[in-house]
């Protein structure tokens, strides 16, 4: 809310399981002066629609996905939240023709490579507010942070080449400066933070057994047998190689 009040974009990078989707839905419900576009992996389209119906039933939510999706303009006009996918974002240019009130990129590590079509299409979207949602903002590569910020708050960080040159060495002073620059735009909480763990519900483990068909069992056993055969060949090759080293396989010998 502070970011929106100050016309800034940002990154919601809470650890997995801390309710990022619920936080975003609550934010949208408090301010839906215009349509919000949520972009997510295809497997999360239905969960977004279901969680919106459960937690914020007053919001009109529409999935813009599939061959029968219709017009994005009609979807935006008749909904508070339009949920689409990164694949469709890269292919359907009509998404960039809507004046969105807010754009949310969920599981935004999908645009960690700024050169992909999805990343370029995301940066081309027009929106008053921009939010990135991801539990892994810099886990893999520092360049991921640059790509996320290039969408959320363009111009905050140096140009891509300058950014890579400045921070590639991992100089402590430069890294401290980078943390200070992005801190106001990034909310990052982990489950081990003080005050977080006591508020979490008890962990639930749900077991779902998937029974294999007879054909699947046969295919699985064939693969295992093939792998075990390959391992046995490697063992025999190693044993014969060690025996030919002139007794080097004894205690302290090179063959051991």
Write the layout of secondary structure elements.
Elements: H1 2-5, E1 10-12, H2 20-30, E2 36-40, H3 45-55, E3 61-63, H4 72-77, E4 81-85, H5 86-91, E5 99-106, H6 117-123, E6 126-133, H7 142-152, H8 160-167, H9 172-182, E7 186-187, H10 214-243
Parallel strand pairs: 1-6, 1-7, 2-4, 2-5, 3-4, 5-6
Helix pairs in contact: 2-3
Short description, anyone?
This protein has 256 residues and is of the alpha/beta class. It has helices spanning 2-5, 20-30, 45-55, 72-77, 86-91, 117-123, 142-152, 160-167, 172-182, 214-243; strands at residues 10-12, 36-40, 61-63, 81-85, 99-106, 126-133, 186-187. Helix 2 (20-30) crosses helix 3.
Characterization of the model:
It is built from ten helices and seven strands. It is α/β, with parallel strands linked by helices. It has a seven-stranded parallel sheet with strand order 3-4-2-5-6-1-7. Helix 2 (20-30) crosses helix 3 (45-55). It has helices at residues 2-5, 20-30, 45-55, 72-77, 86-91, 117-123, 142-152, 160-167, 172-182, 214-243; strands spanning 10-12, 36-40, 61-63, 81-85, 99-106, 126-133, 186-187. The longest helix has 30 residues, at 214-243. Helices cover 41% and strands 13% of the residues. The model is unreliable at 246-256 (pLDDT under 50).
What key phrases describe this protein's structure?
single chain; 10 helices; 41% helix; alpha/beta; globular; 7 strands; seven-stranded parallel beta sheet; 256 residues
Using DSSP, what is the number of strands? 7
Beta-strand level of the residues, as a percent range?
Answer: 5-15%
Largest sheet: 7 strands, parallel
What is the helix/strand order? HEHEHEHEHEHEHHHEH
Main β-sheet, spatial strand arrangement: 3-4-2-5-6-1-7
Quaternary state reads single chain
Distance between the termini: 64 Å
Question: What is the mean predicted local confidence, pLDDT?
Answer: 88
User: Please, how many helices?
Assistant: 10
Quickly give the structural class: alpha/beta
How large is the radius of gyration? Answer: 25 Å
Q: Shape, please? A: globular
């Amino acid at each position: 809310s502070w970011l929106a009040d100050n016309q800034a974009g940002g990154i919601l990078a809470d650890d997995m399981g801390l309710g990022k989707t619920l936080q975003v839905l609550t934010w949208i419900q408090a301010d839906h002066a215009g349509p919000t576009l949520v972009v997510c992996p295809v497997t999360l389209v239905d969960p977004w629609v279901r969680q919106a119906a459960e937690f914020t039933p007053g919001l009109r939510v529409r999935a813009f996905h599939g061959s029968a999706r219709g017009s994005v303009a009609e979807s935006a006009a008749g909904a508070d939240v339009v949920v689409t996918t990164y694949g469709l974002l890269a292919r359907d240019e009509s998404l960039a023709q809507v004046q969105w009130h807010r754009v949310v990129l969920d599981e935004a590590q999908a645009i960690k490579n700024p050169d992909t079509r999805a990343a370029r299409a995301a940066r081309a979207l027009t929106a008053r507010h921009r939010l990135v949602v991801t539990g892994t903002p810099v886990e893999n590569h520092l360049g991921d942070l640059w790509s996320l910020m290039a969408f959320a708050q363009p111009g905050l960080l140096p140009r891509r080449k300058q950014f890579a040159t400045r921070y590639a060495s991992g100089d402590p002073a430069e890294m401290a400066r980078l943390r200070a620059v992005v801190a106001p735009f990034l909310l990052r909480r982990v489950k081990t933070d003080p005050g977080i763990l006591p508020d979490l519900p008890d962990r639930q483990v749900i077991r779902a057994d998937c029974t294999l068909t007879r054909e699947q069992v046969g295919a699985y056993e064939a693969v295992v047998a093939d792998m075990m055969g390959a391992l046995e060949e490697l063992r025999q090759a190693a044993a014969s190689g060690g025996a030919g080293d002139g007794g080097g396989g004894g205690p302290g010998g090179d063959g051991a």
